[in-house]
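Q: A reviewer asked whether we had any structural model of the full assembly, not just the individual parts. We don't, so I'm hoping you can provide one. Inputs are below.
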Amino acid sequence: MTFEEAARIAIWGGGFSAIASLAGIVFVLLDQRGVRGMDVRLANGERLSITNRMPAEEVARRIKIIEQGLASFKTASAGNAAPGRAYAATGAGLQE
Amino acid sequence: MAVKIVRWLIFGAIISLLPLAFTFGDLALRGRPHHLVDVIGSGELLVVVWVLSASALGEMFGGSSGHPVLRIVTGGLTLLVIVLSAMLYALVAEAKAGGQPIDEELLVNASMILYVGSLIPCVFCLICSEIEP
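A: Here is a predicted structure for the entire assembly that you could use as a starting point for your response.
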């Protein structure tokens, strides 16, 4: 393949990639309209989201994780311990 | 999501162009020819393109796991840009090493289009790394 051929392929490829991506971004933004929910940051640094597009079982599973985290938080606070440390130890609780 | 995209655009896309901007400014200050061909005529912008694209691809693979089809399409488009820029750079390096003349105007055009054409899939990658199922 000569340089000129490669350069022309790169021009077409770059243009195609840009246009296809732009179409994808528009699709995603349109698809995300009407999505409602909440984000919770866990003690292990992960983010847990609940949205109205998720199946009910998934929402229930995530709510259970948050409830477990809240319970740990209450226990740690009641015992006058450092809540953040307790959560870091369990790894599943809410951030302090 | 917006914070991540803006941060990537400023500290990734724009900061990575600084060496090229400094080269352009230096050439201008010294009174030498300072056209785009003199700054990116050896494929320098292509390096920026594949580094930016690879970092955005890494963000997507390390991010949210939702929308697998979108992630495959986005990853494919970004990978296409990476492959094209790397291939073009290899051909430029080979031609320069062999002392063969290349059409530098064509190289500059291809580099610019690949750069602009890489920003949009990269932003798409960042969006895909954030959206939940």
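A: Points you may want to mention in the reply: The longest helix of chain B spans residues 68-97. Chain B touches chain A at residues 67, 70, 73-74, 77-78, 80-81, 84-85, 87-88, 91-92, 95, 100, 102-103, 106-107, 109-110, 113-114, 116-121, 123-124, 127-128, 131-133 (CB under 8 Å).
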